[in-house]
Write a structure and sequence with these properties.
Its main location: cytoplasm. The protein is of the alpha/beta class. It has helices spanning about 25-35, 60-70, 85-90, 100-120, 155-185; strands at about 5, 10, 15-20, 45-50, 95, 125-130, 130-135, 135-140. Strand 7 and strand 8 form a beta hairpin.
Length: about 190
């Protein structure tokens, strides 16, 4: 289990981005978030996974990598993997790209939660990545935010749209964490 750490800025968190196959949206989100959150004091570990093992061991889709490179993200390396139950105990936030991913994660979380109660382990919060709104505001309903559409069967523009969304959501999530840390310090 990866331990989060308390820092002068607050408690660091571990974030896992999740889509279906872990070759388009979630690696794009991971790459962008690594770039946006580089050296951010509240971030400890960043990774991505898929709800399915269809592409396990493969590199991200070439269009994902081309899009990342076109925005200056050139050192990102990833091999697709399927999410594990251990991820629910290692990460603080699991970010689903769409409502199907969210549903799958929520179902798995329930079974992990049942066994974690016995040991007292903390289980990750599962959210739709698009639930994080501008100004550090969290959508009042889990899964009520914006969905990141799967660009796999589309053209390059779909990947550009995903890049724009995950960049926006990354900034919104960091704002949310900062706002929450300030609230915790005030209390």
């Amino acid at each position: 289990m990866t331990a989060t750490q308390d820092t002068p800025a607050g408690r660091q968190v571990n974030v896992l981005f999740v889509c279906l196959g872990n070759i388009c949206r979630s690696p794009m989100a991971e790459g962008v978030f690594r770039h946006v959150a580089a050296s951010h004091p509240l971030i400890n570990k960043i990774d991505s996974a898929g709800t399915g093992a269809y592409h396990a061991g493969e590199s991200p889709d070439s269009r994902t990598m081309t899009t990342l490179r076109s925005h200056g993200i050139t050192r990102y390396v990833h091999a697709a993997r399927k999410i594990t139950k251990e991820d629910f105990l290692t990460f603080d936030y699991l970010m689903a790209m769409d409502k199907y991913n969210l549903r799958d994660l929520q179902e798995t979380r329930e079974s992990v939660l049942a066994s974690a109660k016995k040991s007292g382990a903390k289980v990750a919060e599962v959210r739709l990545f698009g639930d994080f709104q501008p100004g550090g505001v969290l959508h009042e309903r889990v899964g009520g935010g914006e969905v990141v559409q799967d660009p796999y069967y589309g053209g390059v523009n779909g990947f550009k749209d995903v890049y724009e969304q995950v960049t926006r959501f990354s900034k919104n999530f960091l704002d949310y964490l900062e706002k929450n840390q300030e609230t915790e310090v005030e209390e």
